[in-house]
Amino acid sequence: MTIRNLTGPGIGRPRVQKIPGFYGERLIDGVVLKDITLYADERGFLLEVIRMNDNEMKASNIRQIIASYSYPGVIKGWHLHTKQEDRLVCVKGMVKLVLYDYRHNSPTYRQVNEIFMGERYPRAVFIPPGVFHGVKNIGQEIAVVIGMPSLLYDPDNVDEVRVHPLDNDIIPYNWECRME
């Protein structure tokens, strides 16, 4: 069978995961992506979320640990911190974490990363200040994301910039599932 001249809408080169569960040209500068080992036996399983001596994840800077629950299909984002570092781990369900580098002096300025993580792919992600991030629950049940920020939440001085997840002129990203 000969295939010729395949052009037109919807035809193109497929995206390739050079890093499993990750789409992007390269990892955004300063972001750390770490697979987490899941220990399982007949009693259940254990996930070591983070060790406080993990220098790569700057774990010693953690000031608070929060749990964010989201319903299937819900998008929580976009938000950016100017001073705060974030560390995220999805411990229930599956999510798509999307990052957008908004740091004008960064070598990966305007780079987009998609990271898939959760029960089926346990991993931790370190997000430096200046990188927009958002999470979409891509599973069929409630997803739980553990957040470990470097600053205590202060309602009188919130270190956060928010942008609408679907309607904005800053981040060139479509949250829909890409059918390929």
In CATH's first tier, which class applies?
Mainly Beta
> What share of residues is helical?
under 10%
- Fraction of residues in β-strands: 35-45%
CATH architecture: Sandwich
Give descriptors for this structure.
180 residues, mainly beta, Jelly Rolls, 6-stranded antiparallel sheet, 5-stranded antiparallel sheet, globular
Could you please describe the fold and organization of this structure?
This protein is an all-beta fold and 180 residues long. It has one domain: Jelly Rolls, CATH 2.60.120. It is built from no helices and 13 strands. It has strands spanning 22-23, 32-35, 38-41, 44-47, 66-70, 75-80, 86-92, 94-101, 112-118, 123-127, 131-137, 143-147, 161-162. Strands 1-9-8-11-6-13 form a six-stranded antiparallel beta sheet, with no helix packed on it. The chain has a five-stranded antiparallel beta sheet with strand order 2-10-7-12-5, with no helix packed on it. A hairpin with a 2-residue loop joins β3 and β4. The radius of gyration is 18 Å and the shape is globular. InterPro entries: RmlC-like, RmlC-like_jellyroll, RmlC_Cupin_sf.
